[in-house]
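Two proteins were folded this term; both appear here.
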Amino acid sequence: MKKFAISWIIILLLSPSLTHAQEITLHFPHFSGQQYDWKIFQGGKNLAVQSGKIPPDGWVALVMPEAYKAYRGMTRWMLKKGGGLDMIYTGKGFSVECLSEHPSSNNIIYKNNSENDYLSAQGNHQQTILKKLGAINHLLQVYSPEEVLHKTAIKEQESLRLQFEQTQADRSKSPLYAARFGEIVDFTRGVADKVYENQDDHVRYFNDFLTHTLNFMVLYTSGHWDQVLHSWLMMNISAEDGDAGFENRLDKVLKRITQNDVLNAFICKTVPFLVKKGKDDLLPGIVSHLDDHPNVRSKLPDKVKNILASVKIMTGKKAPDLMFKAPVRTQTVRSTKDITIETGKLDSDYTILLFYQGECPLCEDALIVLANRYKWLKKQNVRVIAISSDTSDQGFEKKLKYHQWPDNYCDFEGITGENFVNYGVLGVPTLFLLDQKGIILKKTAMVNEVLNALEVN
């Protein structure tokens, strides 16, 4: 049976052609009888706008439905049995033909397609330079600085870096959708505007690119929405300038997004992420921005609305008492009595609350760091209390080896347990730093942020 190889997706870009306006004509005779979907991208979602079966003669006409006539972006023509085409739709008709039973970029034929020509030429030129740079870097590792070839390679490396930087700069000036799409693909591949010697500078470029330059409408229709935003959010969780820098960049991004649908998708992606990472303190800026966009707020899914309405921004407030209903598993026993820990009577200068789960790799990392620093913490009169969301003894016991502190508790109610709800914990690990009176000084998902705060204090 003939089918597209699942390993390849050919990118075609739609442009004016001899076909009727807005009608896309495909001719793939070797795939007649196969079912297909034609999809568009909207944020992290894809929506089928046309489905059908390839006729016996292999001709397929794709017409954008009236409701989506204004759509401009990546589309995907996908066979139900696997394989297909990714195509940038610009509102113009085009046609493409493949008479081979083994489609590839060499035997798919289309005409008058300036966007695709640009994307292909720019991409090939970029990759050629990068491959040459890779070869030069290898030479520099093999030959010593005293050898002639090493000195020649240094000059060639500098020339190639300048060529690469010029190639990227030229693309930034292009008005084509393909140019903006290429920038997004580069982001996913870690390809910057130039070659950076320092990894921190490399990361800083991508952070600044999304914050100040990236076209969010193009990202919304690119098919890379979730991947790009997740990468950007992760960059800012651990950024050198901390929450203040993250808040500033988040504010700039919110103000740059002018389309309601795009803003809605951005908030749907960002809000749950911030809460799970213990960054509740960044939510007021989002809430304030939504005050000026009531139409966006009204269309948010109930899950996000509930988070914004009920999440507890508790920094600066007294921490709720910890209450564990029997049966309660502790470090050494299974208690048949309820246990209550009053946060106003913790008898320590500071207290770290760690909400975690046994199967969570990031939780294990946090436990290891706390275990390694526990002697120092005891000297600073810091108490550690670990609250597990495990629902079985086996899950709880998996991490007991890290617990050098006596305060370890599990009530087997999971993440819906009373303490997780009272503290607004939606993801693990989440850490709270409390002062002597039980006032919350910090909430975060990063154990190093808590330790840094203690070192400052």
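Next, the second protein.
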Amino acid sequence: MTLVQDLSAVHRLAGSLLNGRQDSGDLGRFRLTPDQVAAFHENGFVCGVKIFEPDQADQLLEELAGLLDPGHPGNHLFYEYNSNESKDPSRVLFHALGAWRITPGFHDSLWNPAFTVPASQILDGPVRFWHDQLFCKPARHGGVVAWHQDYSYWTRTIPMAHLTCWIALEDASVDNGCLHYLPGSHKWDLLPITGLAGNMDSIREVLTPHQADAFEKPVPIELKKGYATFHHPLLVHGSFENRTERQRRALVLNAFRDGTRSDSDQELLHGVPPIPKGGKMEGRFFPLLFDPGVGMIQNG
């Protein structure tokens, strides 16, 4: 079997995805406007942020095509790998965590200033990596991602200083199952976990009448290829089925502000050595990506 290098040990660019586009001398062009940052804090999200050029998205899609094969030689490096998270063959949702460890493009995505600079603005400080996710809905029978809050899955870390960046690797529309948000729901309390796939509306079982009313006006987040939306860890979101003739594939980069700590003595991600409860989240698997006082961070 071909050996695959575990790129979690490489805290510098490993491939050609960025090709000098990360020039630290002009990071200002990646900054969000004050109005965009204000909109994030008011609504819980800011969308339409360009992360990749079309050719960069194509490179990632090429790498993704190999990773979709359970027999890929780097498959053992995923923290989680679900060929179909829904378990229903008529409603397929591919979902995997850990691609950054396996291929150079997904690895280098973490250090892309088009991601790290806005993330630092929103988090108001240095940015550390949490984990990545791949979400893929095939044509004609793509499954749902049920309504949920991201932090409900992340309570093993404190404080809640997290951020999600959802990146469309191809056009995401209402028809092929784009993301939907409930604006302002980031101001709700933490809700119980009710499942990520299968039943879109399981979350309704744990809502107050006022919260349930918000589901009458979800906002679709349609994105062009290479564009992203950033959202708050408590913002309620989900995505519907894909019944079109085209796929819907996305990369999600999850980050937190430097200083976030472990709240568990158990492993935080499958196969990752535990960080004792109260210990700072850092090291090989949680690299520092960007410090606004320094710029791009790349350690050999």
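The CA atoms of residues 119 and 146 lie 25 Å apart. The domain at 30-296 is CATH 2.60.120.620 (Jelly Rolls). These notes refer to the second protein only.
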